[in-house]
Design brief:
single chain, 256 residues, alpha/beta, TIM Barrel, eight-stranded parallel beta barrel, 12 helices, globular, binds 2-phosphoglycolic acid, isomerase, Triosephosphate_isomerase, triose-phosphate isomerase activity
Length: 256
């Protein structure tokens, strides 16, 4: 049975004080929560340590928003997997559409980051998703095939257990446009079938596939109720504990 996993990607938002406050509020919302929902927040790098402190004693996990594949050296501006582990990260988000489309990251680069993270024992949320023109021209599946097969090169079944896939249609990110529950379910089922073909039915059944793209309290229940939607990667609505809490409540309702 897959557990629901709700993650907040704070992107390049918050300052020290607001990051600490938000983390404290999310931790409080999850205190004493015995439901089967996994929760994570991914603040900007400078606040990882402070947020980690606020989360201590809660089951809320810590994520980073990117990592570099080299361990150390002359890579100005980059942050190594070892550094993220050193400050207590459980996960790293890789291949986010903003990294792909704003920073120009390729599937080959993302794959190097995935391999380095898993090699060093850091779990990965790997984002995939198509642009609007790709969906409209019927290329969604081909785009996802290419992203999945290249980003997951060299990743065997054993290491896949430390990967979460986040399906994030680019046209739904930060736009207020959400994929309909049907669109999300169809694409998630496609991704799960991709995992069956590449690995096995057993492994595909065990992998968490999150949906991301304008998830909010009002649409979370319906999206998360879809059989192949195992959680949410939340951007904008993760920046307030009220809206993030609303999404967590929806997830808990489903998880029971
Ligand atoms: P959004 O972002 O919820 O603001 O659409 C989702 C994401 O980019 O992970």
């Amino acid at each position: 049975m897959r557990r629901l996993f709700v993650a907040g990607n704070w992107k390049m938002n918050t300052l020290h004080e607001s990051a600490v406050t938000l983390a404290r509020e999310v931790a409080a919302q999850c205190a004493g929560d015995s439901s089967s929902v996994d929760v994570l927040v991914a603040p900007p790098y400078p606040y990882l340590l402070a947020v980690k402190q606020e989360l201590s004693g809660s089951h809320v996990q810590l994520g980073a928003q990117d990592a570099y594949f080299e361990s150390q050296g002359a890579y100005t501006g980059e942050v190594a997997v070892e550094m993220l582990q050193d400050v207590g990260c459980d996960y790293v988000i890789l291949g986010h559409s903003e990294r792909r489309h704003v920073m120009g990251e390729t599937d080959e680069l993302i794959n190097k980051k995935v391999v380095a993270s898993l090699d060093k024992g850091l779990k990965v949320i790997l984002c995939v998703g198509e642009l609007l023109e790709e969906r409209e021209s019927g290329r969604t599946e081909a785009v996802l095939d290419a992203q999945m097969s290249t980003s997951l090169s060299f990743i065997d079944a054993e290491r896949m257990s430390n990967i979460v896939i986040a399906y994030e249609p680019v046209w739904a990110i930060g736009t207020g446009k959400t994929a309909t529950p049907d669109q999300a379910e169809t694409t998630h089922a496609y991704l799960r079938n991709w995992l069956v073909n590449r690995y096995s039915a057993e492994l595909a059944e065990s992998i968490c596939v999150q949906y991301g793209g304008s998830v909010k309290p009002e649409n979370a229940l319906e999206l998360l109720s879809q059989p192949n939607v195992d959680g949410a990667l939340v951007g904008g609505a993760s920046l307030s504990s009220e809206s993030f809490g609303g999404i967590l409540s929806a997830a808990r309702k489903i998880a029971g």
